[in-house]
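so my prof wants the structure for this chain in the tokens format not the other one, which i didnt know existed until like an hour ago. anyway here's the sequence
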Amino acid sequence: MTQTLHTALAATLRNLPDRPGVYLMKDARGDVIYVGKAQSLRSRVRSYWQKEAPGGDIHRIRSVIDKVVDLEYTLTDSISEALLLEGNLIKRFQPQFNVRLKDDKSYPYIKVTLADDFPRIERTRKLPQDGSRYFGPYASASSVDEAMNLVRRLFPFRTCTVDIRDGERALRRPCLLYHIKRCQGPCIEAVTKDAYRADIAQVELFLEGRQESVAEALRGEMTLASDRLDYERAATIRDKVRSIERTMESQKMAAFAKTDLDLVGLARQDNQAAVQLFVIRDGKAIGREVFLLSSPRDTTDEEVLSGFLLQYYGRATSVPREVAVPRPLPDATDLERFLTDRRGATAVPNPSGGRQSAAVRLHAPQRGERRRLMELATRNAAEMLAREQVRWLADHGKTLGALEELSSALELPVLPERIECYDISTFQGTNSVGSMVVFEDGRPRTGEYRRFEIRTVQGQSDVASHQEVLRRRFRNVKAGEEGSAEERRWAMPDLVIIDGGRAQVSAANAVLDELGLHDLPLAGLAKEREELVLPDRPDPVLLPTTSQALYLVQRIRDEAHRFAITYHRKLRARASIRSAFDDLPGIGPRRRAVLLRTVGSVKRIREAPVEQIAALPGIGPALAARIKDGLDA
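here's what i got, hopefully its the right format
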């Protein structure tokens, strides 16, 4: 081995097992910088420290190896399990040397709440194991909205959050959506559970891309309605069938009759990549999504494609029988096993009974219609990436200029690539909260925002509250280190900004000195003249009113204020709700939850007619009258 190793790392390398698993490489701060998988942990991981790794790729990751001081690994029963775990760990740790889906945590899904007697269909960004069925992920919220709007025009499903149970009337009167035929009225028992869920089953088939099955079932219903002389219903169903047929015609791809296929096109530029995904089901193109990825410059196209397949299908809710990629992949066999296992895990009963065949084929088409479509997907990906590059370069040029101007004005030792800003929100000394927002390269890192409920300060004191927040943020950080495991999730900032003037800055500086962080740059942004107050300068720094640096710090300060006041209002609302119900007889936690879940806020309960309150489960006319009288008093 050519590199001098830390004792613990050397011992780990000597004792690596000859079994499949996932490994995490860590730097001196304990941050995960690379995640990999291997059929044999011993052979694969040790090869990184040899003069020449198998396949000759050791030089490509030399920049990674030089930073590694620790290694962790997890054993798996198969390479397929290792691939799934690798994708989950990349999502969790976002290692800088791995290919990563951008904004991966926020990809939306369509959720069908099958655990409810009368399911809802809604957009979500979470995947809890709650008995619901999920479709996606989609590349954007607009893609989800387009699909949901189409489904809503065909099938009138409920959108409310009222707790509706089979055999129970939830409301005395239905809402407007029922009267305009956009909801079937399960809240007033206008539709049976079986009939409603039959429509939901058709929605599921439609979202799967099985529109032909839906149209065929509707044609049968139309014939039955016509035979019963129910011509109004038959006409309604006929209009649905025509809408579905128009959708099918626009999606039809004759060359792929009855084919289930995902086709992946790739474009790259510098450390960015774009993937165009064509989703074809039953020979119809039911989805065209573009995903953006971050990829180190020295990764190969094959590695980018493998990284996308791993992360996308690791949380996709359906996997087709065939996945086409623009070029052969060296780890195709392992990926096919992974995709086959995922297809089996996501399989659902098909209309003809049984479950879908699980075998998945991964290949690179060389000719014919698949190759033509692959070239189209590649051109689309390149166009999207070009648009993203133009937007990014425009934003980056402004941001870089703002950061350089700010660094010069404050005489900072380095460019402030990571800025943390803190704000306090309170109302007459109650429910005081602090906020921490993070901007990196001039962009918000919302996943690293933090809120703090003030615990030790009585009454209204911005100064003391700022001190508490900063102590809790930096309490385990020592000079030159990254602190505890919890603190290591947050990199040290290049600049700390607090919302306030000289008093707040002096108090904050005292806390940083107390914690040994003497060299951490600190500034306060005073609202009155929008001036920057520094602890070691008697006079404030006034940036020009047209300065990009001023626009940047104002944006950061405003974001911290927004984040703090949103949380503060939430706590106040929670406290007001609790106090409003405390003195009402007969209202315990369960009935309080029913009221808030179905009606909403205390204001809406006051405005609601007594009949609506009385119709809620467990309330009744007498208790509804007491609730109204108590809240109006």
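also thought this was worth mentioning. Residues 250-255, 351-355, 479-488 have pLDDT under 50 and may be disordered.
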